[in-house]
UniProtKB/TrEMBL annotation:
HAMAP family named in the record: ApgM_A
Gene: apgM
Domain Metalloenzyme: residue ranges: 1-396
Gene Ontology terms describing biological process: glycolytic process
Catalytic activity: (2R)-2-phosphoglycerate = (2R)-3-phosphoglycerate
Classification via CDD domains: iPGM_like (cd16011)
Isomerase is among the record's keywords: yes
Entry protein name: 2,3-bisphosphoglycerate-independent phosphoglycerate mutase
Similarity annotation: Belongs to the BPG-independent phosphoglycerate mutase family. A-PGAM subfamily.
InterPro entries named among the record's database cross-references: Alkaline_phosphatase_core_sf, ApgAM_prokaryotes, Metalloenzyme, Pglycerate_mutase_ApgM, Pglycerate_mutase_ApgM_sf
The organism of origin for this protein: Methanococcoides vulcani
Keywords recorded for this protein, A-Z: Glycolysis, Isomerase
């Protein structure tokens, strides 16, 4: 048996007046997901345990078969893994954003989506001026960088994600609590260094937002994962354009497969992801395919883009995988689900349970659910389960079959 998990990031939503009370999933034309629902089993998955933030890191950890209550240690350690930065014992990884401060307010959490080339120059200057053996800065992609601090520094500080406080006063949202003094000092000292940097002088001249401060959040220690093989006795791989998801895969001991043209955005190479996924199963037991586009559309509050992203996901990823699975010599079990809802009206994630389906090419246990959406799946025979239990559920079903 081969296993395939297809994740449409943020697909789930609320019912919308402008859709006559339908959700985006109900409105979107999704013949492949609906087919698999009609010919498979449906349920709702809780991917974000109570008390944890509804981030993609937590939710996808669940989908990949890891209980976030046991394994989640923060966002930045996952990003560190995907960037190839090893964390020693007592090392704390922080996400270090390049942000724009305007008149004392947090104007932009992304410094105008600064290019990686510009950002690298700035972060190298920051590391030269502020870095020490105990405080190491690493450039990443666009505005997303890392600080690794030794000796537990700032592990317990209360840090605020800058995208949650856009427009807010910087001083109100600075790191607080144990160990925050060093973090605050670094942020304050970064400002004159960045303000006068040639990269920012050029950006200002071009009418772009300057990256005139650094900002820390999402910190944590390296999580102590058991590998996927240890937990489930399966080999596998992960396909995603997103660092967090790759980082989860690395800690889980799964192979990371890069697909040309995978962007994490609406223009991603959907078909390529599906084709690489099916090819990966020649040598492995399971593949996890993560598609970011519906979440991006949700964050933009763009209904049309979200409908398009979901229809593209259904046609090009789910459809391609379904056709290939049916033709495959080996039997396949396929799961389709969002990690969490990203409702258009909220433009951010929620912790609500998400619809999921299980479809098998082998023999199809079927329940009465006919369509893949938030409401219909409530009637599914699988009921409400913890997302982190789904992988084991598949393995058990394969054994029974
Ligand atoms: Zn997500």
């Amino acid at each position: 048996m081969k296993y395939i998990i297809l994740i449409g990031d943020g697909m789930a939503d609320f019912s919308l007046d402008e859709l006559g009370g339908k959700t985006v999933l109900q409105k979107a034309n999704t013949p492949n997901m609906d087919y698999m629902t009609r010919n498979g089993l449906a349920g709702l998955a809780i991917n974000v345990p109570e008390g944890l933030p509804p981030g993609s890191d937590v939710a996808n950890m669940s989908v990949m078969g890891y209980d976030p209550d046991v394994y989640y240690s923060g966002r930045a350690p996952l990003e560190a893994a995907s960037m190839g930065i090893p964390l020693e014992k007592n090392d704390v990884a922080f996400r270090c954003n390049l942000i724009t401060i305007d008149d004392g307010n947090i104007a932009d959490h992304s410094a105008g989506h600064i290019t990686s080339e510009e950002a690298r120059e700035l972060m190298e200057t920051i590391d030269r001026e502020l870095g020490t053996d105990e405080l190491r800065f690493y450039p990443g992609i666009s505005y997303r960088h890392l600080l690794v601090a030794s000796n537990d520094l700032g592990a317990k500080a209360d840090c605020t994600p800058p995208h949650d406080v856009i427009g807010g006063e910087m001083m109100d949202h600075m790191p607080k609590g144990e160990g925050s003094d060093v973090l605050c000092r670094l942020i304050e000292e970064s400002m004159p260094i960045l303000e006068n940097h040639s990269v920012n002088e050029k950006r200002i001249k071009e009418g772009k937002s300057p990256a005139n401060a650094i900002w820390f959040w999402g910190q944590g220690y390296a999580p102590s994962f058991r590998t996927f093989d240890e937990l489930y006795g399966l080999t596998g791989s992960v396909i995603s354009a997103v660092d967090l998801i790759k980082g989860l895969g690395i800690y889980a001991g799964l192979d990371i497969i890069d697909v040309p043209g995978a962007t994490g955005y609406l223009d991603t190479n959907y078909v390529g992801k599906a084709e690489y996924a099916m090819a990966s199963l020649n040598e492995r037991d399971i593949v996890v395919v993560h598609v970011e586009a519906p979440d991006e559309a949700g964050h933009m509050g763009d209904l049309k883009a979200k409908l398009q992203a979901i229809e593209d996901f259904d046609e090009k990823v789910v459809g391609t995988v379904l056709r290939a699975a049916k033709e495959d010599d080996e039997d396949c079990m396929i799961v389709v689900l969002p990690d969490h809802p990203t409702p258009i009206v909220l433009r951010t994630h929620t912790s609500d349970p998400v619809p999921f389906l299980i479809y098998s090419t082998l023999e199809n246990e079927v329940d009465s659910v006919e369509a893949f959406d938030e409401d219909s799946m409530k009637e599914g025979s699988l009921g409400v389960v913890r997302g982190c239990d789904i992988v084991q559920m598949l393995i058990d079903k394969a054994k029974q079959a």
